[in-house]
Amino acid sequence: MASNKEIKIYTDAQELAESFAFELFQMTQSNRQRFDIALSGGSTPKLLFDVLASEYAEKFPWERIHFWWGDERCVPPTDADSNYGMTKQHLFSNIVIDESQIHRVKGELDPEEAATLYSDEIKSQLNNRDGWPNFDLIILGMGDDGHTASIFPHEMHLLNSDQVCEVATHPVSGQKRVSLTGKVLNNANRVHFLISGKAKAQRIAEIMSDSAAGKKLPSYHIEPSQGEIIFFLDEDSASELP
């Protein structure tokens, strides 16, 4: 298996979400005054947000958590495609949290402007380690094509960009997105992938086998040099692992 990647496997996406919510709760039970967490969009995080809202709304130290995103579609916050909009609907609207702790990408702006503003906000608020912003936790998903955040296989150069954020382009729709770049993702204290579904199984197997095919996938190259990386999988997404 590739390097220091750890795997945890759950029966289904719901069990995965519930178990991860508990791990996240435990992670925040320290004396640290602030946690900076970058969120992901997608179906599995949506389940996670529902669990957090229904089971942990009164338990989490929300006043100490600052929320960011690993990527965002360049759409208004009210658009159905907005990762922020989905999080607001499933989590923020069901907990007590100050708006100043929610750092969204302004997807309604020109993409380059949105990327610059988001990058500046990250640099002004986060701790710096080795010249790059340092997130406490980055939650990532993975597409059927092996992309993560909005780093797609046709834009592998974003893994080594010298920018904190870049404008990415979806390979099929052409939709513009703002994404954290590889050096920021790999500078986090923790990177946790949440992946479910049979459609992801082949890519997971390629990544974990250190294969030539796996090395062509952006998700393969996410491996924080000074932090932990854990793949939280359901049985379907793990079904092709050896």
UniProtKB/TrEMBL annotation:
Any Gene Ontology biological process: pentose-phosphate shunt
> A single GO molecular function, which one?
6-phosphogluconolactonase activity
The protein's annotated catalytic reaction(s) are:
6-phospho-D-glucono-1,5-lactone + H2O = 6-phospho-D-gluconate + H(+)
What PANTHER family does the record tag this protein with?
6-PHOSPHOGLUCONOLACTONASE (PTHR11054)
Answer yes or no on keyword Ribonucleoprotein: no
What's the protein here called? 6-phosphogluconolactonase
Q: Which UniProt keywords apply?
A: Hydrolase
Top-level class of the enzyme under EC nomenclature: hydrolase
Which pathway features in its UniProt record?
Answer: Carbohydrate degradation; pentose phosphate pathway; D-ribulose 5-phosphate from D-glucose 6-phosphate (oxidative stage): step 2/3
Could you say which protein family the record assigns here?
Belongs to the glucosamine/galactosamine-6-phosphate isomerase family. 6-phosphogluconolactonase subfamily.
Q: Which residues form a coiled coil?
A: none
Known EC number? 3.1.1.31
| One protein family per Pfam | Glucosamine_iso
Q: Does the keyword Signal apply?
A: no
